[in-house]
Amino acid sequence: DPDRKTEVVLLACGSFNPITNMHLRLFELAKDYFHETGKYKVIKGIISPVGDAYKKKGLISANHRVTMAKLATKNSDWVEVDDWESCQSEWLETLKVLRYHQQKLLSADVTNSLQDAVPITKLGRKRKQEPNRHEPIKKKNQSPVVKSVPQVKLLCGSDMLESFGVPNLWKLEDITEIVEKHGLVCISRAGNNVQKFIYESDVLWRHKNNIHLVEEWITNDISSTKIRRALRRGQSIRYLVPDVVRAYIEKNGLYSAESEDRNAGLVLAPLQKHASDPRSSQALN
Amino acid sequence: VRMRSRIPVILLACGSFNPTTNMHMRLFELARDHLHQTGQYQVIEGIMSPVSDSYGKQGLVSARHRVAMARLALETSDWIRVDPWESQQDTWTETVKVLRHHYNEALRTFQSKDFTRNKHPMESSMEDSLSCQQPVLPELKLLCGADFLQTFKTPNLWKEEDIKEIVGKFGLVCISRAGSDPSQLIQESDLLSKFQHNIFLVREWIQNEVSATQIRSALCRGLSVKYLIPDSVIAYIAQHNVYTAESERRNQGQLLQPLRLQNTAINPLRD
Lengths: 285, 271
What we know:
heterodimer; A: 13 helices; 42% helix; B: alpha/beta; Rossmann fold
C-alpha cells in the first residue's frame, strides 16, 4: 500500500541535566521533517534520561532529572518521559534502550492484533462458501492485515553522532545495529560537519539512508552545561528552559558548584566498561 | 552611616514584536543580570513597546495583535510589561520621543511616591528609610541588539542630536551574540565613544537567535515553533489566524516610515 506511512517513534537518550528548550525543539524539528517527507508519521516521542550510574561529572540524581523532564512535557500531547533506563542500577548501552522500546512496541502491537483477531472457525466457514475464488478475500471480518510495527529511531544532535568517534565510548557493533536496525535522526545547525563525518565512516556510509539529517536554521545553542553555568553565577535562565523547570530548579536549589563537582575524577561508565573490551577500540571506519 | 543605594533603572525595548519571541524576553533578563552585576544598578522595571502600524514594515500585523501577544508572553514575568502607548499613536514615533514619554511617566510616578514619603515620614517602609534620605532618580535605558547600534551608521537615518540624547541622556544596553563584538563600532564613532560610559555591552553566550521573521516563515509553512515562543502566543496566533501568506505581503514595496522622513535629517555619524 503506497499510501501507508511508516510510523515512527523518536527516542532521545541523554543526561537531560537539566532538560532545556533546545532538547524539546529536537522533537519538533524531527517530527516536521518526517511529515514533510510524506512517507513517515511520527506517533510518539520518548525522552529517556540516563541513569545515575553513568557517572558523568555534574550529573544530579535521576529523580530530579526525570521529574523536570516530566514537568517540561506535561503539556505535550505526543512527547513523554520514560524512566526505565534511569531506574537501572547499572549503566545501559543506548542500543539496549532502543531494543527495549522497540520490543515494547512489538509486544503492544501483538496484544492489539490478538484483540482484533477473528476466531479461526469463522474464517474456515467463509472459505467453504466460495471455493472457486483465487484472490484473497478482503472482507471486514477477516484476519487483520499485518500492520507494520512503528519504528523506533534514535533522535540526537550532531554531538552524539560525532561522539561515535570517541575511542571506547561506543562498541562498533552497537553503532552498526543502531543505524542498520533502527535508524538515526540527527539535528544539526547549518554549516555542520555531520555529512563529512558520515562520509568518513564506512559503517555510517553504508547505512546513510537510515540516517536522517535535519538542519536547524534557527541557531539554538541552549546546552545544559550553559544552563548550569548560568545558575552557578546567579544569572537568569528564563525563556531558555520551560518555566516549570526553572521554578523546580529554584525551589529545590539544584545545580551549584557542589553539584557540578559530583563524580569528579570518576571515569564515565561506558569508558570504564569498554576499556578492557577489544571490540570498542575498533575504529569507526 | 549612609548606605549607598543603587541607581534604579527602567529598561525600554522598542521593536516590531511581530511576534514576541523567547529571544525578546531573554534580552531583558540578560540586561538585568548585567546591570545588577555591576553593583551600581537596580533594575526596577522592563517595558516592551511595540511599534505602531504606521511604521510600514512588511509583514507587520495589527498593533492590537502584537500588543495582545506581548501581554500573553509576559504573563509569567513579574517585572516586564508591555506598554501600548507607542502603538496607539497616529503616526510613527521616533525612538527618542518614546524614551522621553516613558521617562516623564517614570518621573511622575517617582515624584508622587516621593510626595507621599515626605508627607507621611513615619509610615514609610523599611526599604525607603534604608535607601537614604535622598532617594535616587530612576534612569531609563534603551534595550537593544547590536544591529540597532549598527543603524546609527546609516546615513540620514538618525539626527545627530537624537543620538546624543539617546546615548547621553538615557543610555543604551546593547546585547550582542557570542561571535560579534560591537565595541569596535563604538570606537569608530567619536559621538558614541564620548558616551561609552553610558553604553552597556552585554554578550549573549547562549545563542538563541529566534528571529520573528523565521517564526512567521515557519508558521506559514505549517512548521512547529513550540519552545521558541511561548505556548500562549502560539495558541493566540492559531486562534486569530494572525500570520498568513497575506499578512506577510502587507506593506510590500512600501518604504519604512523613518526612511521616508530621512530627507529632513542631517547625516548623523559623519565624524
